[in-house]
Amino acid sequence: MYKWILNCLEFKKTIFTIVVLLLVFSSFGIRHLHFDYRMKIEKNQAQERTVFIVAYDEHLLDQQHLIQLASIQKELSEVKSIKKTISLYTMPNIKHYFDDQEWHTVLSDQNYTQDDLTVLKADLLENKLFVGRFISKTADAMLFYIDIPDDKLGNNSLKIRQDIQQVLDRHAKSFARIYQVGP
Q1: N or C: which terminus of the chain has fewer CB atoms within 10 Å of its end residue's CB?
Q2: What is the pLDDT of residues 147-167, one digit of tens each?
Q3: Burial annotation 138-148 (CB, 10 A radius, 16+ → b, else e)
Q4: Rounded to the nearest 5 degrees, what angle is found at the Cα of 163, between the Cα atoms of 106 and 76?
């Protein structure tokens, strides 16, 4: 090790030149990577549209509402024109992955005890990935993202909105408000 350090000190200019050249060449690759990433995002945005479903209720994280939300998730995933639905019922629960060695979603249609609900609410509100994206800061509103490919949207826009609205209407009495926003 000592000899290696002495050799490095002896060839300072050569080592410095190699390091600078490596940095310069790697910066070209990074710049192109960023460009390719943006192109992929623009391509995806052009190929599908997103509809948002918002469910609101003061007691959104009680057993009754969680079962209703799970049912909405299931019914939306069965609508033919929908490519995918993203919500807390489809998001992986990374927190418990390494404990269980099994993949679980953040929410499920299981029966929760009152203690489970208290822990669940605390976990959701602590997670910056979920707050403001899937659930409100006060845990009284939840968001579902629905991706619809442009080729399915076309002239079927009204039909797709009606299909989604039928699902929401079946569960509307369970929430203070539930509605869709999107194309």
Answers
A1: N
A2: 887 766 666 777 888 888 999
A3: ebebbbbbbeb
A4: 15
